[in-house]
């Protein structure tokens, strides 16, 4: 086989792999969206950034391998790589990875909750103590305020009688 044909086949293979990589990276976004709910604005922003990055990656591959010339069989190879990956293992990969990551996060949550149990216990005790002392100090504050108000009114009455 000619060196030119071998170079074209390698270029087609690289575009095929690039299609698989693009779809694999997008599956990472799908996993993230399953774990953390996104609104439409955030999804659109993520997609825009992703596709700009993909365009830069495709341009770089075309520039390095084919001097920046667009070859339609490269587009076909990337599309074929995307389709084969998407139809074969993409859905299974997203399901399994999101389940695994969710379970790992749940395990870490339970471990952290167990380790912080003494902190929560003492925190509740301190809140109760502060709450009880807060109630008592509020009562004392109201008592002092009432006493001062009565004294102020008595002083005011006395001063008014002296002026007349």
How is the secondary structure organized here?
Elements: H1 3-35, H2 40-66, H3 72-115, H4 117-163
Helix pairs in contact: 1-2, 1-3
Task: Describe the overall structure.
9% of the residues are buried. The chain has 164 residues and is an all-alpha fold. It has helices at 3-35, 40-66, 72-115, 117-163. The model has no long low-confidence stretch (mean pLDDT 85). The chain is elongated, with a radius of gyration of 35 Å. The chain has two domains: 1-115, no CATH class; 117-164.
Based on the model shown, name its key terms:
164 residues, mainly alpha, 2 domains, single chain, elongated
Structural classification: mainly alpha
What is the rounded Rg? 35 Å
Number of domains: 2
| Beta-strand percent range | under 5%
Quick one: how many beta strands? 0
Summarize the structure.
The protein has 164 residues and is mainly alpha-helical. The chain is 92% helix and 0% strand.
């Amino acid at each position: 086989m000619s060196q030119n044909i071998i170079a074209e086949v390698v270029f087609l293979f690289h575009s095929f792999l690039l299609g698989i990589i693009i779809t694999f990276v997008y599956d990472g976004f799908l996993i993230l969206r399953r774990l953390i709910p996104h609104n439409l604005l955030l999804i659109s922003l993520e997609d825009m950034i992703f596709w700009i990055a993909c365009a830069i990656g495709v341009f770089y591959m075309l520039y390095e391998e084919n001097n920046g010339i667009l070859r339609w069989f490269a587009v076909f190879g990337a599309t074929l790589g995307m389709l084969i990956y998407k139809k074969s293992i993409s859905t299974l990969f997203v399901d399994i990875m999101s389940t695994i990551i969710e379970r790992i996060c749940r395990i870490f949550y339970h471990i952290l909750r167990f380790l912080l149990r003494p902190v929560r216990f003492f925190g509740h005790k301190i809140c109760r103590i502060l709450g009880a002392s807060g109630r008592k100090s509020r009562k004392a504050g109201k008592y002092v305020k009432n006493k001062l108000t009565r004294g102020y009114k008595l002083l005011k009455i006395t001063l008014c009688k002296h002026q007349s």
